[in-house]
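PROTOCOL LOG
Step 1. Enter all chains and additional molecules of the complex.
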Amino acid sequence: MWRIFLGFTGTGALIALLVFANLPGYANPRIDTVRSVEPDGKVSESFFFRSPEDGIAVTHSGRLPLGIAPPGVVALSDPAIDKGFALILNMHDANARIVGFAVELEVHPEGDMFAQDLRWETEWVLVIPGRGMLILHQQEHSGELGPKVINSIRETRSDWIGDWTVQTTVGPLANGRGVIVGGTEEFEGASGSFIEIDHLTRYTVDGVMWGDFELRVAMEPRK
Amino acid sequence: MTRILEKLAVATGGVLTGVIVVAGVLYFWPFESENRTPVALERIASSAGTTESFFLNITGDIVLATHGGAFPFKPLPEGIAPLGNGQAPNTFALVTKFRHRPEGEIVAFGTELEIAHPGSSFLLGKIMTHTLWSIVVPGRGALHLYQTENNWRLFKQVMLPMLLSGKAFDGQFSGVNTLGPLDGYRGRVVGGTGDFAGITGSFIEIGTLRHLTPEGSMEGLMELRVNYHRSTMAESP
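Step 2. Run joint prediction.
Step 3. Record the structure below.
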């Protein structure tokens, strides 16, 4: 009996060692997304979002013509951060597969951004399990969002429905593109630029935006 | 028949004993990183440059928190959608406000984003995540901080006893959560924008847990202690 006991004790110990060696569920299989390599070595890759279906949460001071969602999310109403804006949403590759999620953080300027063309700073962080996180920074502008969309909603008290595509990125690079700040894992030391392209089809009176959005990233070749 | 049942019982007892022995040895094994708090505090304190702390009260300063399904935290608010629509189970996202002092005014907002680290192993005393903190300070700019985080000590001293007993943790559990990637158990300043553009440096995450329930509700305090300096050329922090 002791031999059986000791033999199976060894088996139990072995099973425990195998299970404890790699924690189940901690692996992140890499999803190969759609990328293209330019002749100069730059890697181009786009990430896509659909609104409202990809939205997870959005918050701001409560003064923007956009809902805070879902119910229970805290508003950024403290005086020091009441120009802040945060959005979390799922992210797709060019084949419409979900490859992770992204966070957009903005600080809006003083003044009515829908009455005039104002600029503000935006940070994007893309989270891609199996690859890492990519940090992007851009300056965006309100441009025609006020005259074309928001003001019409305010005047008519009805939804805006249309088909409007616009590059929201205007800097900080001289050529009007945003910059890659850096990243982690596969994106550690990444550099390059990007643009955000928004395609709006509907904007409701209660502040729900319909459309699709693209972050078109161009990564410089590694040195 | 009785003999066979006896052998089966002995074999089962043997397997369980083997599992318990390994788990027991791991529980009491003195992994070096468990004593990293004084090392990390000393390393950051002795670093040249500017040191600035950002605090967040848990859960008072939290705007929202959600995950891909596999993290042991209660999403906030209840009913918020999981990350990645089931395609990113090992991810976590927190949106929070920050203060310069625990009881001070709100000065910033930002995120903590995590991906489970495949290097995690009970045999190595590592329950790890890749963690990126982004802090947006209106009027100053944004700061991005990367660390590998190890929650082995939290698991061993708080979560495991809580799960085995079914009773909530109430007390004071504190220490440095950062494991790397820099020496001295420090995370790395990835970069920044605005006033933080062009800085390099390091940081540590110091957590103080006061309450945790098996359902994932918690109370505590988190500090990000950042040490940075301006750099006109790439250099090691």
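Step 4. Note key features.
The first helix of chain B runs from residue 2 to 28.
Residues 145 and 189 of chain B are 5 Å apart (CA to CA).
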